[in-house]
C-alpha cells in the first residue's frame, strides 16, 4: 500500500521578485511524500495562478488520488488520472523517487537515461528599472547566461543596460506574454545587436498565429503556449524552441516524452522551472542534459533552501544526490 502525505510550504525570496504579472516575497509550493514498504519518495510543485492553479486546488487534486495510490496507482495510470499541471507533477516525481529508492537504483537509471552531468544554468534578473537591472547585471557579469524579465515599457532600455553591465554574457529575454506582435517585430532586430540569443513567449498564449510570417532576427521560444505534446502542432513555424517545465507537463514522465517529440519535430529545447526549491529542480536536471538552454536557478533566488540542496558552482548546476531526490 502506498501512503500519501501532502502539504503546503512557504519559502521566502531573496529580496524581491518581480515579473510583468506582479511581485512576490515568498513562493508557495506543495510537497508530496509517498511511503511504501519502508521507502519514501518526494515531489514538489509550484501551483501557478496563470494556469488557474491554487495551492488549495492542487492539494485537493492530489488528495483525490489517495485511494487510487493505496490501491497501487503507478505512473502510467497517473498520466490518465490527472491532467497536465502542478498536481500531477508532484505525484509523478514522487513516484519516480519512490521507484528509485525501492529498486536501489538512481532515477536516471530506472528511466533508461544516461548518467547526468552538471549543466550550465541561466541566472535570472528580476524586473526593475533599467538602471537597477544594469547594476544587477554588473554583479553577475561573470555568468555565461543571464535571463531578463521584461515588462513592456522601457524593455529596450533595460536590455541595453544589462548588456552594458554584463557585456560578455549571453542574454535570454523573457517577455512573459507582455508584447504585442508589432512590438515583437520592432524589438527583435535591436535585441540581436545587444547579445540577445533567445526571446521567450513574446505574445500571449493563444495568439501565436500573430507570429506567422515574422522575420525572427532572434530565435523565439514558446513557454506559456507549450504544456505537453498536444501543444506542439500549433507551434510549428512560429517558434524555434519550446520551454519544457515539469509543472506544465505534469511531471518528468510527460516531460521526457515531450522533449523527444519536440526534437523530432525540429524544435530546440529549453528546460525551465517555476521559482521553487531544489526539490522542484532536481528531476529537471535529468531532463536538461544536452539541451540548448537550461534555466534552473530557482533555489539561487530564494533566501534559503532545503537540506541536501542542489549544489551550484556559480552557474554550473550539479545533479541531485539521492538524499534530495532520485
For the record, the CATH class of the largest domain is: Alpha Beta
Poorly predicted parts: none
**CATH level 4 superfamily of the largest domain:** Enolase-like C-terminal domain
Strand order of the largest sheet: 5-6-7-8-9-10-11-12
Please state the overall shape, judged from the principal axes of the Cα atoms: globular
- Any idea of the CATH topology of the largest domain? TIM Barrel
Strand residue percentage? 15-25%
Spatial gap, N to C terminus: 20 Å
Largest sheet: 8 strands, parallel
Name the helicity range: 25-40%
Helices and strands, in N-to-C order? EEEHHHHHEEHEHEHEEEHHEHEEE
In DSSP terms, counting alpha (H) and pi (I) runs of 4 or more, how many helices?
11
Radius of gyration: 19 Å
Mean pLDDT: 95
Q: Structurally, how many domains make up the residues?
A: 2
Q: How would you sum up this structure in a few lines?
A:
With 326 residues, the chain is α/β, with parallel strands linked by helices. It is built from eleven helices and 14 strands. The radius of gyration is 19 Å and the shape is globular.
Structure write-up:
With 326 residues, the protein is an alpha/beta fold. It has 2 domains: 3-104, Enolase-like, domain 1 (2-Layer Sandwich); 119-317, Enolase-like C-terminal domain (TIM Barrel), CATH 3.20.20.120. 32% of the residues lie in helices and 23% in strands. The chain has 11 helices and 14 strands. Helix 8 links the parallel strand 7 (170-174) and strand 8 (196-200). Helix 1 (55-63) packs across helix 4 (86-103) and helix 6 (130-139) packs parallel to helix 7 (155-165). It is globular and about 60 Å long.
Amino acid at each position: 500500500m502506498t501512503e500519501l502525505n501532502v502539504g503546503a510550504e512557504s519559502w521566502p525570496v531573496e529580496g524581491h521578485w518581480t515579473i510583468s504579472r506582479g511581485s512576490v516575497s515568498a513562493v508557495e509550493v506543495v510537497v508530496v511524500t509517498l511511503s511504501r514498504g519502508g521507502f519514501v519518495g518526494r515531489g514538489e510543485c509550484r501551483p501557478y495562478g496563470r494556469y488557474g492553479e491554487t495551492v488549495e486546488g492542487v492539494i485537493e487534486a492530489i488528495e483525490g488520488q489517495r485511494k487510487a495510490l493505496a490501491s497501487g496507482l503507478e505512473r502510467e495510470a497517473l498520466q490518465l488520472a490527472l491532467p497536465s499541471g502542478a498536481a500531477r507533477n508532484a505525484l509523478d516525481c514522487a513516484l519516480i523517487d519512490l521507484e528509485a529508492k525501492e529498486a536501489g537504483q538512481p532515477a536516471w537509471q530506472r528511466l533508461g537515461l544516461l548518467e547526468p552531468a552538471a549543466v550550465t544554468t541561466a541566472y535570472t534578473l528580476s524586473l526593475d528599472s533599467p538602471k537597477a537591472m544594469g547594476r544587477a547585471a554588473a554583479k553577475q557579469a561573470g555568468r555565461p547566461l543571464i535571463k531578463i524579465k521584461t515588462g513592456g515599457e522601457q524593455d529596450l532600455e533595460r536590455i541595453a543596460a544589462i548588456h552594458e553591465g554584463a557585456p560578455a554574457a549571453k542574454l535570454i529575454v523573457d517577455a512573459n506574454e507582455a508584447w504585442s506582435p508589432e512590438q515583437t517585430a520592432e524589438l527583435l532586430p535591436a535585441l540581436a545587436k545587444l547579445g540577445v540569443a533567445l526571446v521567450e513567449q513574446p505574445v500571449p498564449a493563444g495568439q501565436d498565429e500573430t507570429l506567422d510570417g515574422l522575420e525572427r532576427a532572434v530565435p523565439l521560444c514558446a513557454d506559456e503556449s507549450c504544456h505537453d505534446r498536444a501543444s506542439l502542432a500549433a507551434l510549428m513555424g512560429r517558434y524555434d524552441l519550446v520551454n519544457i517545465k515539469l509543472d506544465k507537463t505534469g511531471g518528468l514522465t510527460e516531460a521526457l516524452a515531450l522533449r523527444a517529440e519536440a526534437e523530432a519535430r525540429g524544435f530546440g529545447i529549453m528546460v525551465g522551472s517555476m521559482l521553487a526549491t531544489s526539490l522542484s529542480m532536481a528531476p529537471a536536471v535529468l531532463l536538461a542534459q544536452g539541451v540548448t538552454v537550461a534555466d534552473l536557478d530557482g533555489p539561487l533566488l530564494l533566501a534559503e533552501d532545503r537540506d541536501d540542496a542542489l549544489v551550484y558552482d556559480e552557474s554550473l548546476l550539479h545533479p541531485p544526490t539521492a538524499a534530495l531526490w532520485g
